[in-house]
Known about the structure:
The structure holds two protein chains of two kinds. Helix content of chain A is 63%, strand content 0%. Chain A is mainly alpha-helical. The longest helix of chain A has 12 residues. The radius of gyration of chain A is 18 Å and the shape is elongated. Chain B has an eight-stranded mixed beta sheet with strand order 4-6-5-10-11-9-7-8, sandwiched between helices. The radius of gyration of chain B is 20 Å and the shape is globular. The termini of chain B are close together.
Amino acid sequence: MIDRTEPQHDACQRHAALIAATLANIDALPPLPFDASPQGFAALKAEGEQTR
Amino acid sequence: MSATLGVIATADAFARGEISAEAATAAALSRLHSIANLNAIAALNPDAALEQAQAQDRARARGQTLGPLAGVPMAHKDLFFRKGRASHCGSIIAAGAVSDTTASVLTRLDEAGAIDLGTLHMAEFALSPTGYNEHYGHGHNPWNPGHICGGSSSGSGIAVAARAIPASLGTDTGGSLRHPAAACGLTGLKPTHGAVSVAGAMALSATLDTVGPLATNARDAARIMDVIAGEDRADPTTAWAPVLHHEAALTGQIGGLTLARPRGYYEGELDATIATALNDAAATLAGLGATLVETTAPEMAAANAFAHLVMAVEAATLHRHWLTTRPQDYAAQVRARIEPGLCYPATAYAGALMRRGALARDWIETVMGGADLALLPAFPIPLPTIAKTTEGAAQDVARVIGTLTRNTRAINYLGLPAIAFPIGFDEAGLPIACQIVGRPWSEPLLLRIADAFQQEIDFHTRQPERAAP
C-alpha cells in the first residue's frame, strides 16, 4: 500500500477521472509476454540501423 | 537585412565575404527587438553574441576554415543551459538558476561557427502545445497575434517565422517542435529518440524528450542536423546513433519512395480544409514520383495513454519537491499535466517502458504498412485563438488542447522521427501543416521528401505580413 502525503492524495483525487481512464486503456492490452523488456525500443532502433 | 536570409544563405554569404558576422548579428538583434510585441524573447545577450561574431569575422579574415554555420545568428529555447547563464525554462521556479555546464548541442553549434544571441520564450517547463505561459505572457503568432503560436518552443517558432533569425533549436516531448512549426508555417524536425543529445537541456521526460531544429525550410534544418546529431558521451541514449548525412540526402529525388496515407484514427476530428490540403500535398508528392498507399491506423488509445503516463510520471519525479513546496508557482494548466504522475502505480510506468518497442513495431507495421514514410495531419483543426485555449470552461479548453495534440504526442512515446512543414494556408490566412513520420533514423529521408515538396511549392517562403522585415 502506498502511503501518500496529503497534497499528493489531493492531487490524485483531483485527477481521478483521467488516471482511471488512462489505466483502463492500459488494462485493455493483452498480458505482457515473459520476454518483455524496457530494452525493446533500443532493439528496434538497432534493427533500424542494420536495415537502413 | 541579412537576418532574413536562411541558414545556408547566411553561411554562404558570410563565407563569400558578402556580409560580416557582426552585421548579421546586429541585424538579427534589431529584428528580435522589433517583434517584442509577439513575446518571442526570454533574454538576449548582445555583448557575448557580438564577441562571438567578431571572432568569426577575424577567423575569416585570417583565412581559417569556416564551420558549416559560421556567421549564422541563432537564438534558442530557454532550456538549453549555457555555463554562467541563467535559464528560467518558462517558469518562476527555475528563474535565476545559473548553469555550470553548457548543453552539448550549444557546444556543437558554437564549434560550427553559429552565433548565440540568447534565449527565447517558451511554455512553462515545456508544458503547453499552444505557447501558453501564465508567468511571462503567451506567445503570439506572427501570422495573427490573436492566434496560438504553438508550443512549447513558442519563442523559437515566433522568431523564425518573423524572419528575425534564420533558425532555432527547440525540444519536442509531445509535439513541442512540430506545434510551432505547424502554427507558424515553419519546418520542424523531431528526431528519433537518441539521435540528438539532450545533455545540458532541461529534462521534462527523458524517455520522450528530443532536441531538433526549427527553420524556414528543410534544407536549413538538414544543415543544423548535420551539426547537432550523433553520439555524445554525455547522453548515453545517443550510443546507438548512426552517422547520418542529412544535407547530402537532399537530392530532390523522391521517385521510388512509398508514402502511406493512413485512414482510421488519423481521419478523426480532421477539419475538411486540412483534409483537402493533405490530399493536395499527397498529390504533389505523387507527382514528384512518390507512390501512395492507403493503410488503416488502429485506435491510438494505448500509445496516447502511455505517452501521457510516461511524461507525467517522469515530470512529477523531477518536480515532486516543487509541487509540494511551491504549488502556487505553477500555472494550474501546467500543474494539472504533471500531478497525475504522482499517482500512477510503478507497474503501469514499467509496463509503458516494456511495451514501447512492441507498440512502435506495431505502429510501423500497421500505419506505415511497408511504406517508407507516413503522411499525417499535424494539427487536425485550424489554429484556434489564444482565447479558445485559455478562457471558458476547463473541459472545453482541455478538449481543444487534446485535439491539437492527438496526432503528435504518441509519436514521442513510439520514439519515431517526424517532420512538420507547411502545406497551405486556410481562409483566415493561417498556415496548415502536415507531419511525415518515419522509421528510426529516417531523418535524412524525412528531410529529403520535405525538401522535394518545398522545391515544388513555395508555401515555406511566405512570410507573415504583420511581422514583415
